[in-house]
Specification:
This protein has four domains: 64 residues, SH3 type barrels (Roll); 153 residues, Tetratricopeptide repeat domain (Serine Threonine Protein Phosphatase 5, Tetratricopeptide repeat, Alpha Horseshoe); 107 residues, Glutaredoxin, CATH 3.40.30; 95 residues, no CATH class. It is built from 17 helices and twelve strands. A hairpin with a 3-residue loop joins strand 11 and strand 12. It is α+β, with helices and mostly antiparallel strands. The two termini are 34 Å apart. The longest helix is centred in the middle third of the chain and has 22 residues. It is globular and about 80 Å long. The relative contact order is 0.10. The chain is 51% helix and 11% strand. It has a five-stranded mixed beta sheet with strand order 8-9-10-12-11. It binds zinc ion (ZN). The site of zinc ion has 7 residues, from helix 11 and helix 12.
């Protein structure tokens, strides 16, 4: 995402976090936006979404409806306060790139059977021994092992370890190929890993075994949507909605339908690594080819720098300005977005210009960082790297503001959460201190399921808080 946050640092020093999880923003134009958190920065109200942050003029907010008790906070948010909440934000609820596990919740098989005492690992061990020693008992034992393995896969998936989950589910379907929940959940875990095509085939198998299973339909819809089969995704989600209505599915369905509505007349042209869609009635075909050529050129370069190859073709959708904001529900001045697909408003642009180049590289970087970290990268590094790749460099003013913030903080809780400009500055700092390879190591560790804190410590040789403090000290020394 690319935000033009004009005087972002102007109020950096008077920052307080004021949003609450579950709040709803009611805008003057009648739109309602549910947010996990929000804060203000100058004239903007900012909230996390699509794995980044979105700012809207807070003059456009009529009121905030308090998520905890449903009461209205009558006043628009105060104009002071700034910059908070980026580090431990949950992934945006409807960002396909980073659907949280509970959005793709694995389903439970029936209980594995009467010997279900003790931990799953112990049950598995006992059943394995039984299957090995008692030929007559083997078929029943293996059936139960498949269920135990599915439950173990569910635990791994909930703990964020998609690799372990895939391994467990694969063993489960090997032992009992008719166990539909194992196929569904294998599909879910593969989706978590960005292996869309394999997920599709698993989910189709699951539906052949258990037709009209609503969870299988919901996940199949997700796989189709990510594979850019939007029309098919809509059909499948509609079937799921008819069988078992759910708010989340309805939201996904509505987004897909908005996309289908404005995307209906879009033309596709495929490069080696991209599918590009654009409004054929307004955009110059030459612009489409120029964009594809540019993306392919930068793709090779970025893939070798990040040592990360997305497992599916990247979908890039170019929108006329208005349709872009309708589909993405973003404010007018958002430059682009990566939510599993790269979406860019091109307005009346006829030839590829500097602004468009920067937006494309920025969003492409998001796609590669998401692929490498399997959607687990904190926002500061996503936005830090994306800005860096598009050619931005931190300004002296940012350093001065940060140095001042450090002195005022007395060293504690300095930059506990990073905004857009300081994300870039911190990313640059890490590169200068530890080298770009350390950042890649961090992303790879996140991708293999390590937690934020452990991955940071291992990649940079110091804790996150400790590193921030050392950075603040260095900034304060340089500035004085
Ligand atoms: Zn961004």
């Amino acid at each position: 995402m690319r935000l033009r946050l004009g005087c972002l640092l102007a109020l950096w020093l008077s920052s307080t976090s004021i949003g609450r999880a579950g709040d709803t923003l009611l805008l003057h134009d009648g739109r309602r936006i549910e947010v996990d958190s929000w804060w203000t920065d100058g004239a903007l109200l900012i909230y996390p979404k699509y794995g980044g942050t979105i700012g809207i003029p807070f003059a456009s907010v009529e009121r905030v409806i308090d998520g905890s008790d449903g009461s209205d906070r009558r006043d628009p948010p105060p104009a002071s306060g700034a910059v908070r909440a980026a580090r431990a934000l949950p992934p945006a609820a409807d960002s396909p790139a980073t659907l949280p596990v509970d959005a793709l919740a694995p389903i439970q098989p029936d209980p594995p059977g009467s010997e279900g005492e003790g931990s799953l690992a112990r049950q598995l061990e006992a059943l394995t021994a039984l299957a090995r020693t008692d030929i007559a008992a083997r078929p029943a034992a293996e059936e139960r092992m498949a269920k135990v393995l599915t439950l173990m896969g569910n635990e791994a998936l909930r703990a964020g370890d998609a690799d372990a989950a895939v391994a467990a589910y694969e063993r489960a379907v090997g032992l009992d190929p008719s166990l539909a929940p194992a196929h569904v959940n294998l599909g879910v875990a593969l989706l978590e890993q960005g292996r869309t095509r394999e997920a599709l085939s698993r989910l189709q198998t699951a539906l052949a075994l258990a037709p009209d299973q609503p969870d299988a339909l919901v996940h199949l819809g997700e796989a189709l949507y990510r594979d850019d089969q939007v029309r098919e995704a809509i059909e499948v989600w509609q079937r799921a909605e008819a069988l078992a209505p759910s708010e989340r599915t309805r939201a996904r369905l509505e987004k897909a339908m908005r996309e289908q509505e404005v995307g209906g007349e879009y033309r596709a042209s495929a490069g080696a690594h991209f599918t590009l869609r654009y409004d054929g009635t307004r955009a110059e075909p030459a612009l489409g080819s120029a964009i594809l050529a540019f993306l392919e050129e930068r793709f090779d370069e970025l893939v070798s720098r990040y040592n990360s190859l997305p497992e599916s073709v990247l979908v890039v959708i170019l929108y006329p300005e208005r349709e872009f904001h309708e589909v993405t529900q973003t404010p007018q001045w958002t430059g682009g977005i990566y939510d599993g697909k790269i979406r860019v408003p091109i307005g009346g642009v006829r030839v590829i210009d500097e602004r468009l180049r920067r937006v494309l590289v920025h969003e492409l970087t998001h796609a590669l960082v998401a692929a490498k970290s399997r959607g687990n990268a904190p926002i500061w590094i996503q936005e830090g790297l994306a800005q860096r790749e598009e050619g931005k460099r931190s300004s002296a003013t940012t350093s001065q503001h940060l140095a001042r913030a450090y002195r005022l903080s007395g060293g504690s809780a300095f930059a506990a959460d990073l905004d857009y400009a300081s994300s870039l500055a911190f990313t640059e700092h890490l590169i200068s201190q530890r080298g770009f390879g350390a950042l890649l190591d961090f992303l790879a560790r996140l991708g293999s399921g390590e937690g934020d804190a452990a991955a940071f410590q291992a990649a940079f040789g110091a804790g996150y808080g400790e590193t921030l403090t050392a950075w603040g000290e260095a900034l304060a020394r340089t500035a004085s």
